[in-house]
UniProtKB/TrEMBL annotation:
Annotated protein name in UniProt: Gag-pol polyprotein
One Pfam family of this chain: Retrotran_gag_2
Organism annotation: Hermanssonia centrifuga
């Protein structure tokens, strides 16, 4: 008699990168691209590295923290790969020499959510992409 067991796959078990559409050079799909990439980074527990809330551990003479630093670097490389593999060549050229995933993320954010006129254009785009219905109130 054979028995079978079913297991629920763990997200960490997936080794391949998620396949999402590329960020357009003109940023026309930036808000949807950003949402998808952030979702993937959160699932893979990489967002704290990308947004800078989890900094690389600093070694000291007493405690070199080699394992922690290696682990952080590995996670940073995974995050950087997930982000950069969704960029078209022109955008990739602009972030190619960034040292960390946070630096890549911040450059893209500055380009598409920058200050002044860029921010106004971005916010207007976000406003018109939103949808209203009777079930969702306008208030906070």
């Amino acid at each position: 008699m054979s028995t079978s067991t079913s297991t629920i796959p763990d997200f960490k078990a997936f080794s391949r990168l998620f396949d999402i559409s590329s960020l357009e050079n003109n940023g026309s799909n930036y808000s949807t691209w950003k949402f998808r990439v952030k979702t993937i980074l959160k699932i893979r527990s990489l967002m704290p590295i990308v947004n800078g809330t989890e900094a690389c551990p600093s070694p000291s003479k007493d405690d070199p923290k080699t394992k922690e630093i290696t682990s952080w670097n590995t996670r940073d490389h995974k995050a950087k790969a997930q982000i950069t593999l969704t960029l078209r060549d022109e955008l990739l050229n602009g972030v190619m020499y960034a040292k960390t995933s946070k630096e890549v993320w911040d450059r893209l954010k500055d380009w598409y959510e920058g200050k002044g006129k860029q921010t106004i254009a971005y916010l207007i785009t976000e406003l018109f992409r939103g949808t209203l219905d009777d079930k969702s109130p306008l208030g906070p």
